[in-house]
Specification:
The structure is a single chain. The protein has 302 residues and is mainly alpha-helical. It has 2 domains: 198 residues, Cation efflux protein transmembrane domain (Alpha-lytic protease prodomain-like), CATH 1.20.1510; 79 residues, Cation efflux protein, cytoplasmic domain (Alpha-Beta Plaits, 2-Layer Sandwich), CATH 3.30.70. It contains 9 helices and 3 strands, in the order H-H-H-H-H-H-H-E-E-H-E-H. The protein has a 3-stranded mixed sheet with strand order 1-2-3, covered by helices on one side.
Length: 302
């Protein structure tokens, strides 16, 4: 059930924080890639790829905040909030492909080891960890009130853990000369990137495919609606997510009350949907028993 508690966060300040976070992460990615090429560390480049995904996630959050404020119009009658989902789908697909590529490169490193400069790896990874901490601080407050930005925040925190892994790899190379640790750490980072991508992708696709919200069961909703006095049957029920936060329902309601009382039945239905299931958008087709579509049509699949 949605508690409907909202806390005001100045949108201009939030957007500035996101722009700063994106800029810092893009700059860090460039530094990490250069450092990885100079030092020969594949795990540092892998961490750079992960960090670039952080910048992309933050960019998507910023893009979504701007586009989602556009009001619905004749061209997009439900508004523009799903732009975030489309961008997320592209980003997650790219992330998965990059993770697979990193695994390919890491396996080649086992076959053809290269010399790695441990100190360069450690220094750049330490800077990356510091930047990740700063970025997390910039987005922490917003993450409390937005699932989208919270996902970007958690993504950034996970990247900080990756940076720690790269520091461990660089230290092992310096102390023990274990060049293979770099490839092993790359595999670990790539596996975590794939885990993130494959765990978030089904959620995004589910919403885009008009899937029923995970916390709702259609049978339970129908049972609740049929418990309202005056309603004898509920069918042709469809529940979907308009976006990450808004749920919508359409249903046929069979009632034996007079036409003049339809509005009171509708009001009762909408209040129940709002209070119990956090469904704000509903389209209700009111029917009398003798015009029930499932009675008239024996082949009805309501």
């Amino acid at each position: 059930m949605d508690t409907h508690h909202h806390h005001h966060i100045d949108p201009d300040t939030s957007n500035k924080n996101l722009v700063l976070a994106v800029a810092v992460n893009v700059l860090l990615t460039v530094v990490q890639v250069i450092g990885g090429l100079v030092s020969g560390s594949l795990s540092l480049i892998a961490d750079a790829v992960h960090n670039l995904s952080d910048a992309a996630a933050l960019g998507i959050a910023l893009f979504a905040r701007i586009i989602s404020r556009r009001p619905a119009d004749a061209f997009k009658t439900f508004g523009y909030k799903r732009a975030e989902l489309i961008a997320a789908l592209i980003n997650l697909t790219t992330l998965i492909l990059l993770g697979i590529y990193l695994i390919y490169e890491a396996l080649w490193r086992f076959a053809e080891p290269v010399h790695i400069e441990g100190w360069i790896v450690i220094i750049i990874a330490a800077v990356a960890f510091l930047v990740d901490a700063i970025t997390a601080a910039l987005t922490y407050r917003m993450s409390k009130h937005s699932l989208n930005i919270r996902a970007a925040f958690l993504h950034n925190v996970s990247d900080a853990l990756s940076s720690i892994g790269v520091i461990i790899a660089g230290t092992c190379i310096l102390l023990f000369g274990w060049m293979w640790v770099d490839a092993v750490m790359t595999l670990i980072i790539a596996a975590y990137i794939l885990y993130q991508g494959f765990s978030e992708l089904p959620k995004t696709i589910h919403i885009l495919m008009d899937g029923t919200p995970a916390h709702l069961q259609i049978a339970d909703v129908i049972q609740s609606l049929e418990s309202i006095e005056g309603i004898s049957n509920v069918h042709h029920v469809h529940i979907r997510q308009l976006d990450e936060h808004q749920n919508a329902l359409e249903a046929h309601i069979v009632t034996d009350v007079s036409v003049g009382n339809y509005m009171s039945i509708k009001q009762s239905v909408r209040e129940l949907l709002h209070c119990k299931y956090a469904i704000e958008h509903s389209t209700l087709e009111m029917e009398l028993p003798d015009e029930d579509c499932c009675v008239q049509n024996k082949h009805c699949h309501c």
